[in-house]
Amino acid sequence: MSMTFKLNQRRQESKSPPIITYANNEGDQAAPSGKFRDTVVISMNQLTSNQQKVAIETHGCKLNQADSQALAREFSAAGFQVVGLHEQVDIFVLNSCTVTHVADRKARHSLRSARRKNPDATIVATGCYAERNPTELMEISEIDIVMGNGSKRAIVQRLVDSLELPIVPCATGEDIDVIPLSLNRNRAMVKIQEGCDQVCAYCIVPKVRGREKSVPVATIIEQITAYQDAGFHEVVLTGTQLGSYGFDLEGESIASLIRHVLNRTRISRIRVSSLQPQDITSDLLELWDNPRMCPHFHLPLQSGSDNILSQMRRRYTASQYSQSVDAIRNRVQDVAITADVIVGFPGETDDDFEHTFRVCQHSEFADIHVFPYSTRPGTSAAYLPDSVASEVKNARSSSLLQWAEIAAKSFREQHIGTTRSVLWEKRVNGGDGQSWTGLTDNYLRVTTVSSENLGNEITQAHLFELDGKTLRADTKLA
Q: What pTM was computed for the model?
């Protein structure tokens, strides 16, 4: 059940605790006795015009990015002006992550920073941190509204009710939010499912995203077609556990969904945000024979030790992971494989870490995200003995990151002298005003110099030089 905690007015004249109401998905209920004071109505002094400025900051995964796109579209449809984070705003929304304590700290910093920059704004905290621990966020005086994931889409409605502004309804699946059109016209995040039933020992996500639910195929096709007609060239299929797609839809799976998208839309690029090693099958991989499928797989590893994988309650062994990587490389040309790794999980020995290191070396990742283990209250791993000392976790993390930088550089260097498809995203500071940045189909960051307007265009680009973490390209030689 998704809890919603809502502050109805920021009292500028008082340093007292936030004034809130308590609600959940089944309707408003009385606040727990002794915890909260009387409720007052949101002050509309800041909401006097349909051109109020709104900024949305997003932390964490692509699913959060998808939700933020939905919020941006709804604010815009309601008459608000959605602007960048650098501008002064009337409403600031943080869509938070809570995967580690570092993510929580980053969220608190962003919220306080937003208040300093926008002293009179309405500050809204939503997302996974707001779902997991709303009480903690309510104790932060800078925050005005705290709403969990289940009530995220109610934010705009509650703010505009008193203004009587129109809201354009978006298509929805069965009890699940689906993304309306985004304001950014490069790459659209398409939520195909939400929730996770796998309950890994370290992971708080099932508690903040709920049980697995799939979006109906027809709804997804309708969404992608709308993006396509609006000028988008790439969609990213995203969710909490993509490999579970279709378990609640008769005859559907992640492979069948991709076939539907390939056969029933004309979108130029289809990217899959993340899959589990056990999701990789020959039936799935044959879909990448179609050039519209982006050759990029994000395949979380977490550990290369069978002992630790078992303690984590992951559903594969280190050998099975490596077999999945090999199967991808044997089928998909020029593929980029990226991964997540957790170091310092309770009980992890030097030998366990060495096994992880060897799996990473075998996998030749284009990039990895390394996370020192962070205890999450409410997960079974929080009760495990044999915690790893912080200095050991940091040393292992540093060692793996040093190797990862070398591996990532090697992957980029392999593409010097090649020609790849690039989706150009935006103009960047280059002194001449003619520099552009974009992503290849296999997720390489590229820049070029061109007097033409390349924004939101897909072109062939000849990659000729590595500049830091970016490849320089020439579109004329492609």
A: 0.76
